[in-house]
Amino acid sequence: MSISMMGGVKHILAKLFPRLLKIMGAKVYSKEAREFFITIIKQSIKMRYEHEFSGPDVINTLLQLYNVEKTRLDIISERIVEDITAQALLLYYTGYETTTFTLSMLVYEIILNGGIQTKLYEEIVGTLKRFNGTVSYDAIMAMEYLDNVVKETLRLHTPTSLLDRRAMSDYEIESEDPNEKTLLVKKGTPVWILQKAIHLDPNNFPNPEKFDPDRFSYGNKQNIKNYSHIPFGSGPRSCLGYRHGMTVVKLVITELLLNYELLPTNNTYVENSSKTYNVINHGIWVELSPRRE
Ligand code: HEM
Fold first, then answer.
1. 191 is annotated as contributing to ligand binding
2. Which pTM value belongs to this model?
């Protein structure tokens, strides 16, 4: 599903003026896209009804939340199907794109930084020796350098662009410059927090364009200010899939590095490597060279 220019504009309008869009009856996604996903959910519900299946999955949980009895799945209302589709789509968007994006950028940083790849590989091999050679959850969690590399990737190449909130009360933001006026954010104002602006602020991370996983090392992490590293957001609406996302990224990289050395190719873009947008535009070219050990 491609996102058109108009789709992008509607997305922004939906965030800024959700009620206006509702009054106008405008939909963010095209009819074709909506019908595609609604059909998938309908088929899944039909399959559950016909085969009396109820797995411990998201659709089942949502059906329970709506108090839909198993015997009445054939007459489920369009409204509930739409709601379940919206939730399933949200999970797909939030979970899939973010994780694959992080993986791509992590691979990119690894191929540009040979020393980091060697250190990572040595940590992976060393840790697995302590865990009977098995790639398990506990083994992955014991890899501190891998954790630092993933966090640094998420700082420099944050998969989401902003966090959106609404001010619950009037709030004053004082300027650092005494000649500038205090900014009043009125109750109800939509607030967008640009993650990358915070991640690339030299007051938070010195030499911010540099990929340096050691910023997050055990000895350095006390220097990281609260709310200065927010790839998963923060507060009660922060990412629900934080653990899942981190675990998947770490698992895939561990398996990849165990079996291959990742190398740049002649096409790999190196000029402005900290500029995520440029990197994506050029594509991420990588050679997988099988390890022989
Ligand atoms: C590297 C991977 C991921 C990153 C960087 C990421 C990032 C984010 C961010 C920035 C938010 C908004 C948080 C806020 O506004 O404070 C968010 C929300 C969310 N994420 Fe993730 N995410 C990742 C993986 C996942 C996965 C794997 C899932 C599900 C399986 C997931 C499910 C969600 C959900 C449901 C929300 C909405 C939470 C709410 O509104 O209460 N995410 N994520």
1. no
2. 0.86
Mapping DSSP onto H, E and C, the string for 179-234 reads CCCCEEECCCCEEEEEHHHHHCCCCCCCCCCCCCHHHHCCCCHHHCCCCCCCCCCC
Distance in angstroms (rounded) separating the CA atoms of residues 172 and 182: 7
Ligand 1: residue whose CA is nearest its atom 11: 239
The tens digit of pLDDT for each residue in 6-50 reads 777 777 787 778 788 888 887 778 889 889 999 999 998 888 888
Per-residue pLDDT tens over the stretch 206-227: 999 999 999 999 999 899 999 9
Question: For residue 12, which of 28, 32, 35 has the smallest C-alpha distance?
Answer: 28
The pocket around ligand 1, CB under 6 angstroms, is made up of 91, 94-95, 98-99, 102, 154, 159-160, 163, 231-234, 237-241, 244-245, 249
CA of 138 to the centre of ligand 1 (A): 23
